[in-house]
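Hi all, long-time lurker, first post. I run a small reading group and we've been trying to get comfortable going from sequence to structure in the token notation. Rather than ask abstract questions, I figured I'd post a concrete chain and ask someone more experienced to write out its structure so we can walk through it together at our next meeting. Sequence below, copied exactly:
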Amino acid sequence: MTSPERPSPPRARALLRPYALLYLYRRRLRIHRVQESLAAVGVAVAVALVFAVMIANGSIAGSAYDVVHTVVGPANLQMRSRDADGLPQALLKRVHRLPGVLQAAPLLEQTGAIVGPNGHTATVELAGTELSLALLDGLAHTLPIAALSPGGVGLSTTAAAELGVHEEGGAKATVILKLRGETHTLPVAAVLGREAAGALSQARVAVMQLKRLQALAGLQGRLSRILVDTVPGHTAQVQREMERLAAGRLTVTGPDSEIAQLHQALGPSDQASGFFAAISVMLGFLFAFNAMLLTVPERRQAIADLRLIGTKRAAIVQIVAFQALCLGMAASSLGLIAGYLLSRGVFHQSSGYLAEAFTLGTSTVVGLKPLALAVLGGTVATFLASAVPLLDLRRGRTLDAVYFEEESPGNALGGLTQLRLAACAVGFVVLAAVLVTVNASLSFIASGVLAVATMLAVPLVFSAALRIGTSAANRFQRLTVLQVALASLRAATLRSLALAATGAVAIFGSIALGGSRDDLLRGIDGFAHSYAADAALWISNPGDNQATSTFMADNLTTRIQQLHGVEHVSVFQGGFLEVGDRRTWVIARPPGLNREVLKSQMSSGSASTAIARLGESGYVVTSKQLAEERGVKVGGLLSLPTPSGAVSFKLIGTTTNLAWSPGVIFLGTADYRHYWDSTAPTTLGVQLTPGTNPQRAETEIKSMLGPDSGLEVSTARARDERIETLTSDGLSRLGEISTVLLVAAIFAMASALGSSIWQRRTSLAGLRLAGVRPPRLRRILLVEAALMLGAGCITGSAAGIYGQVIIDGYLKQVTGFPVARLATGARPLEIVAMVVALVLAIVAVPVWSASRTSPTLALDE
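-- Answer (accepted) --
Happy to help. Here is the structure in token form:
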């Protein structure tokens, strides 16, 4: 009789079931909840930065897109005027009669200032139209009839809120409109909410009857544009016929051209803020990576324990990946919430500097792309950092090798490895220099490379700091606290390096980004000062800093000229001109009155030659980026689509973009009057006789104009400050990103230090057991923290100054902004001192708590 076959022992499972994965992670959270929480904070900070900046960058263009499409509806073509005086309204009937046209609607747009019942002022886009436009864009069913009633004005919810007009009682209020030099009192016919005007409710707009706006603006029989809806399949034919009617004097495009121009206008500022943000995001992920590195030692020990009990490699990888996924998703969710709040608050950038040229919305637009990229980035950063302990799964490595390292288990980093990392850091610094030399647009990559080099250099700098500290401790034997602190740091190399690297990355970002922002703002300040210095007093439409809105001067110039202390009154002209996808800023000043701004803003060519030639006919000076885009060099011919048709001008020099990102064109007054067929001023510049007090002259001119005038008078200094404030607000996100990065870094380092101290409770209890009293233990911990932060700050400061040079070059060469020369001064030292002081102040709480750890904890372990 054969014996029964003995069952074979069960084979170990290669992979674990879901409930086992959940059980193991829940167990980990119970034991290491503080470390996991702090690592999650690091990941959440990175995700919040990514999400907030991407939303903020996309919201201006996204909300404007909604506004434009609410206005144009199904229209697929438009005929636009090239100047503020518009196109003949008679063209509307001719366009409507073209074969293939379903519908054509008129629109007159003017920028004006409205004063509310409480004295609050807002610059709004006035839209004059007829019922045909409401029928075209589908608003006829929701727009209140009163909005287009004769004599009244309809305000969007956003405009009404800024003016202090309440929606429920808005129709009973009256407002004062200042338009083209005149003042008008208007009743509020309606307040247009989203249910009535859709996305228009989120824009600073006012709606009124076409004929009424034409009368108020002195533009009877004129339109800004004609919107056209065509029969399917006939668009190209209709466009050819509309171009024939335009005769080269008007622009015929699709309705989305304004969005393209807005994207272009936002491009340089978005490039600048996006560049800052991308660096911040990268640094944020380095924070996350370093935060996760703090958990590496105990994770390596956990993996060793699993291998010793026979767990398969695949199962260990599964455990690590599952825990990384859980942590990454939870932290990313927290980061998304924080990022959205940041985008609505801190990162909500002012778009007022574009309001004179574009109709903008104010809503926050959240797209799927920012959402996906933020979550993906946070999860990937978590996976990468969590994968570091998996290096112990290499074949040929002893299962419990982690317990036989010279230093604290899982924390060793050999001297040879430090030298290799330092060599890589030097190579990356050289690579960064090569990249910016080859092409300034590669500065972002160069900055990223430099940030990584900063991290790689930390181990060697940290080792040098420990050697210097050891030398000091050996020389001064009484520094026993320093000796104990140094011994502790050597026993936790990887954890210490993660903390020092966090500090290095934070200081690098703060100095590089903050310093470049300061250089940019100083450059804008210099431009604003030189732009306003060409006259002592300025007279213009309210809020028209760029002098692009015309007004009716009548005999105003002569009357001002007769005032005491006035030497001369000059007529300045200008506007916006669409050159390709750029809505450029045209500046036309009398001969010699571009002196200050050209001397300070020239990029190529002679300023004195440009000043002289602009007094003649046929010459222009443009921003460098515009000339390069059109492929024209100094001395070449640049063709411009003027209201009189395409005209070629000789380019005699290039400038910065004067903080107007689409670019600028300087033109002689004679050429502007001829090709724009206009003598109407956009501002008056008043020169005073020597010794005349500007404030007194300003008061006299205001008195002469009277309270009913729609013009404002300002000194050169006031205009300078207003321009500087407006353009700086448009770039405010740069400073906010830098500040948020620094704040996040401080809390990230404080959290990391707190986590490190928490993980060392057993060793601290051992010191307590050996007789170390709490006050002495606190000093030891603070000295350790100072040494770690010091090593990181030294590395970050050196790299940050070089990073500032790289970013300055990018802003100047690629975006065209006026950037002042590099100036660091004592700023790096101030940042380092502030960071170290704040981190140590925050860490003082966990240090005090850890110093009171019960000695019995060491016995329990």
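A couple of things your group might point at:
The first helix runs from residue 18 to 31.
The radius of gyration is 33 Å.
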